[in-house]
């Protein structure tokens, strides 16, 4: 079995807009950093898997899909933040197909861990609309593929991006077969992900949101992982963990006000990986979302790969220059009470 497999989006450079922060250099910086660490050549690069029409139309409304395809043909905007180019329809499908491939390889036991450098990102895309730089919801399509085609019954999506993963939450809002957990800066785009958003209908109690005040950093995230996310995973017992990993939580990121270090980011992935090893047959894959500072993206990606491989790693960027706030303690206490932990 391969210790790690990657998905790299060949040709993704054709999806770009001058001056936009979601730019091809992000993925190239990550690839260069993994190569520099000696962790790129050694591991296979997966081709994008096909997306079954049933899965695609479960995750996204057919009317949105046809609107997206037409918008891409003329290179129009999906919304004020979200661009397309004539190549974007194909590149978005490739990104989602890469997410599916990274999930399948681990689910089927061909690889121990999967790392999908998805671009464009996906976690803001809801059932009926792309938004927030996202066209198709890559991680949702990966999870839905495991459920529809591989008979998976219980999956967890852990969203560590700076922003709330509103799309992934909305798509699985009323379901029990995917437990969605998100820790994100609040208030911030997309202005959802309140502590009391816990799912609806049959899905009540299967969405968990941990909104972090600006200035939260390594200690805050460590506590959220140990005192909230891991206990909730323990309670739910997923068969596999799918991680939305965005590096906009890093203290250098221009879009966020969190103070996470790359080292701490790696430790979060280490904890999830250890949990998966102990309780989910080691099944964990990570899927790229945001992160707009190239040095932070490079360092955090090395940290993530090191964590997935169980290898030592030194953080070249170090901790945040300012000390973190303490407002997050209230949120953790309220969350523990709400979730009865
Ligand atoms: Zn983000």
What's the short story on this structure?
It contains 10 helices and 10 strands. The chain is of the alpha/beta class.
The CATH class, by name, is: Alpha Beta
The CATH homologous superfamily: Histone deacetylase domain
> Major sheet: size, sense and barrel closure?
8 strands, parallel
Mean pLDDT: 98
Poorly predicted sequence stretches spanning 5 or more consecutive residues: none
Gross geometry: globular
Spell out which ligands are present: zinc ion
CATH topology: Arginase, Chain A
List keywords for this structure.
single chain; alpha/beta; Arginase, Chain A; binds zinc ion; 8-stranded parallel sheet
Describe the protein's topology:
Layout: E1 2-7, H1 25-36, E2 45-46, H2 53-59, H3 62-73, E3 77-79, E4 82-83, H4 88-107, E5 111-116, H5 138-150, E6 155-159, H6 166-171, E7 178-185, E8 207-212, H7 218-236, E9 240-245, H8 262-279, E10 284-288, H9 294-309, H10 328-338
Parallel strand pairs: 1-2, 1-5, 5-10, 6-7, 6-9, 7-8, 9-10
Antiparallel strand pairs: 3-4
Helix pairs in contact: 1-9, 2-5, 4-5, 7-8, 7-10, 8-9
The structure holds zinc ion.
Structure description:
- With 341 residues, the protein is of the alpha/beta class.
- It has a single domain, classed as Arginase, Chain A (3-Layer(aba) Sandwich), CATH 3.40.800.
- Helix content is 39%, strand content 14%.
- The protein contains ten helices and ten strands.
- The chain has helices spanning 25-36, 53-59, 62-73, 88-107, 138-150, 166-171, 218-236, 262-279, 294-309, 328-338, and strands at 2-7, 45-46, 77-79, 82-83, 111-116, 155-159, 178-185, 207-212, 240-245, 284-288.
- It has an eight-stranded parallel sheet with strand order 2-1-5-10-9-6-7-8, sandwiched between helices.
- Helix 2 (53-59) packs across helix 5, helix 4 (88-107) packs across helix 5 (138-150) and helix 7 (218-236) runs parallel beside helix 10.
- It starts with a strand and ends with a helix.
- 54% of the residues are buried.
- Zinc ion is lined by residues 161-163, 246, 248, 289-290.
């Amino acid at each position: 079995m391969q210790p790690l497999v990657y998905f790299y989006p060949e040709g993704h450079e054709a999806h770009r807009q001058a001056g936009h922060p979601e730019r091809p250099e992000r993925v190239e910086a990550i690839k260069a950093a993994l190569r520099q660490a000696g962790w790129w050549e050694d591991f296979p690069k997966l081709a994008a898997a096909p997306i079954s029409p049933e899965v695609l139309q479960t995750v996204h409304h057919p009317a949105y899909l046809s609107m997206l395809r037409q918008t891409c043909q003329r290179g129009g905007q999906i919304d004020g933040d979200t661009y397309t180019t004539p190549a974007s329809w194909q590149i978005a499908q490739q990104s989602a197909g890469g997410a599916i491939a990274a999930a399948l390889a681990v689910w089927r036991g061909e690889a121990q861990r999967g790392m999908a450098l998805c671009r464009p990102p996906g976690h803001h895309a809801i059932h009926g609309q792309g938004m927030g730089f996202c066209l198709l919801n890559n991680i949702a399509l990966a999870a839905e593929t495991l459920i529809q085609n591989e008979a998976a019954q219980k999956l967890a999506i852990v969203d560590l991006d700076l922003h709330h993963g509103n799309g992934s939450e909305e798509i699985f809002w009323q379901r029990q077969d995917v437990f969605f957990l998100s820790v994100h800066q609040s208030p911030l785009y997309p202005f959802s992900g309140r502590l009391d958003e816990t799912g609806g209908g049959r899905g009540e109690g299967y969405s968990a949101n941990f909104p972090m005040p600006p200035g939260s950093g390594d200690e805050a995230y460590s506590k959220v992982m140990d005192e909230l996310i891991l206990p909730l995973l323990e309670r739910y017992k997923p068969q596999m963990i799918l991680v939305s990993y965005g590096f906009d939580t890093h203290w250098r990121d221009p879009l966020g006000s969190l103070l996470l270090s790359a080292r701490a980011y790696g430790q979060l992935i280490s904890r999830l990986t250890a949990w998966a090893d102990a309780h989910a047959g080691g099944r964990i894959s990570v899927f790229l979302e945001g992160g707009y500072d190239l040095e932070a993206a490079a360092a955090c990606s090395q940290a993530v790969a090191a964590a997935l491989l169980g290898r030592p790693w030194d953080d070249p960027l170090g901790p945040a220059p300012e000390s973190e706030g303490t407002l997050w303690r209230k949120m953790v206490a309220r969350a523990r009470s709400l979730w009865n932990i």
